[in-house]
Amino acid sequence: MPDRGPGPWGEADQRAEADQRVGLSELLARATDRVPLDGAPGKSGAEMERLMIDGQPYVLKRLDLARDWTLRASGCLPGPPLVLWQRGILDRLPGCINQPIVAVAGYAPASPRPSGGCLLLMRDVSPWLVPATDAAITEGQHTRFLRHMAELHAAFWGCGRECDVVPAMHRYLELSPWLAKAELAIGSEHLVPSLVAKGWPLLADVAPAAAAVVTPLAYDPSPLVAALDATPHTLVHSNWKLDNLGTDESGRTILLDWEQPGRGAALSDLAWYLAINCRRLPQSKEASIEYYRESLEAQGIETGPWWERQLALCLLGALVQFGWEKALGGYDEELAWWEAKSIQAAPLLVS
Hints:
The chain has 351 residues and is α+β, with helices and mostly antiparallel strands.
């Protein structure tokens, strides 16, 4: 891999961005039939439009720092997909992953406010995405997602600094009370930050035992991040929600929304998947966890020495990320399960 300088904005990165902008500009110059996708799933503030290039359908996505709260929360202000693209990480994904991005370039719209971000041109894979409904997915698709997640993690096992894009600390702060306060301070009207603001105070009333463990970590996740640093790491996608997933005609997993990736604990992806998709999964959490473990071991990764510790910490981490959302649903079997796992993991935190 060529030297890209110290961090995402080294001299080589800037040259690469210039080359990519030319390529993206040339593609967009041939675009026709451009139509905004106002009703597309997603709550980040990103803008998307469908277009045709040489008779083939594509989607253009704008990650604008002034509009996209997830981009602000990531701390990677040029846009994580741009950094992944510049470093060649997307080209190293295993064959089981269908990653539809074909061009990325920096985006700096004329604005009196500080801004930035990037433009992503993607193949239109909408026919193969999981439908945005409340129905459970099939067990076959579910286990395929877990198997391909394990293959992705195995491909980057023990990865180096090139995978440091969004830090683990930022990922655990993405849905924190700090996010809600920051977005309120700038007059943001996005739905998710407003729900985060409502949900975190509610957790103490709905599930006080869970709140006693996770609310302090939602404000300061450093004890959790430090504990996870002592376990193995890989490249994590960090948003395996069903809205970002699909299965193409070849049986590959479509994986969208590379906007919080970085080096981290593999089981943080698994825990996120179980937490955010809980109402639509056809298999129990325990069975899903075991299937993922078997899939990772099938890739040659030994799990014995570290598994229980990382699993406990990552399940706790999922409630640090989603305690607000679980509280909005009231105290039910779902929240009770996560509460128990969080209490069990608390002694593993680094003080």
